[in-house]
Amino acid sequence: xxxxxxxxxxxxxxxxxxxxxxxxxxxxxxxxxxxxxxxxxxxxxxxxxxxxxxxxxxxxxxxxxxxxxxxxxxxxxxxxxxxxxxxxxxxxxxxxxxxxxxxxxxxxxxxxxxxxxxxxxxxxxxxxxxxxxxxxxxxxxxxxxxxxxxxxxxxxxxxxxxxxxxxxxxxxxxxxxxxxxxxxxxxxxxxxxxxxxxxxxxxxxxxxxxxxxxxxxxxxxxxxxxxxxxxxxxxxxxxxxxxxxxxxxxxxxxxxxxxxxxxxxxxxxxxxxxxxxxxxxxxxxxxxxxxxxxxxxxxxxxxxxxxxxxxxxxxxxxxxxxxxxxxxxxxxxxxxxxxxxxxxxxxxxxxxxxxxxxxxxxxxxxxxxxxxxxxxxxxxxxxxxxxxxxxxxxxxxxxxxxxxxxxxxxxxxxxxxxxxxxxxxxxxxxxxxxxxxxxxxxxxxxxxxxxxxxxxxxxxxxxxxxxxxxxxxxxxxxxxxxxxxxxxxxxxxx
Length: 494
Hints:
The chain is of the alpha/beta class. It folds into 3 domains: about 10-95, Four Helix Bundle (Hemerythrin (Met), subunit A), CATH 1.20.120.140; about 110-305, P-loop containing nucleotide triphosphate hydrolases (Rossmann fold), CATH 3.40.50; about 310-494, 434 Repressor (Amino-terminal Domain) (Orthogonal Bundle), CATH 1.10.260.30. The protein is built from 24 helices and 8 strands. The protein has helices at about 15-20, 35-50, 55-70, 80-95, 125-135, 155-165, 175-190, 210-220, 235-250, 265-275, 295-305, 310-320, 320-335, 340-350, 355-360, 370-380, 380-390, 395-400, 405-415, 420-440, 445-450, 455-470, 475-480, 485-494; strands at about 110-115, 140-145, 170, 195-200, 225-230, 255, 280-285, 290-295.
């Protein structure tokens, strides 16, 4: 799974903090004066400009916000601050494109997707990631190495294709790119490929010769999609690049790469508004699966610290099957959920992405992720040390943690390079996790969290609630607290 998501993208961290800070002035107020609105919007304007958003976009964005905020109608139970946050969210969604823009792959195959952009934007890597994403949608994809100018570009795509097990069409560097692309489409038609992805050449800056070459390929093949790959770190220059490519080849969508970098994010907020080209994908990591569909409403919610429950649910469902969820539910219902299951749950969470990123998608918890020590503990060595301690246990100890006495804890600590106190802490964390699930079902934590964690966690919570109402059965309690062989032998001697 992409660990982008994050989709809690690092690229918007500074903007998110400043926008949320701009609402502090109006929190607690029962009504808004024009002075309050202007003060808050001045902070919003400053935050957007600092994020390198196009100044015309900022001007229009703030003007629309001011008009709506001054005519705000406050309903019962909603504070002015909450209403303003919702207004900013709605305008951000409009700025980013209102609805998700998907690939247009209608009609008879093969469908041609042409990737264009400057050199260094990540076109070749994006081609492989897009091929992998389409394969997950049951589409046979053919990658085409049409960049015959950049050193080792053909070899890079061939290597990527081998790693991802996606066929690559290449003809070396002596054949004209137009011919390579035409031959690839003919091959796709003959061999039954659904999609052809053209990795075209780029330059360090807009180059007339390369632009004409791109135009010739576009006119020859009439691709269904022409996607411009833009590096999010290029800032306002990305807007100029998008405008020029759009003028030449009618770009149908954008792929923004390096969204996991420390770029300020202005490109993502500006390009759509200035050019009208929708953002279709975000490159969220260097991993092969680090390409995500772009959802304007979800990104706006993340920027404002409102979480991203839908993406969290989707990630959970992709990693945890219904069968696994039922198995967890059964074990919790019979009080046999143990450290072995806990370890498997940790592995599933790791496949969903960094834990700090997942928590950032839960409404109300995004602010915790600004605590660097907490983020380090969630994603760093602490998690690995926890796994090492569990793996240093015997199968019986993982299944029956109650039998872990002092001598066993010392042995586990030696085997994992930890201290006995660390083993004590691990066992305590495991017990705290059980208590947390009970708190969720008793209403002490937000109910929204229950749905956000996906089918497995929902099954755990419902099972815990059922067990709490009915009480544990004796046979299950005996099974859970099964004594060790050493303890049983001591009892026989007595």
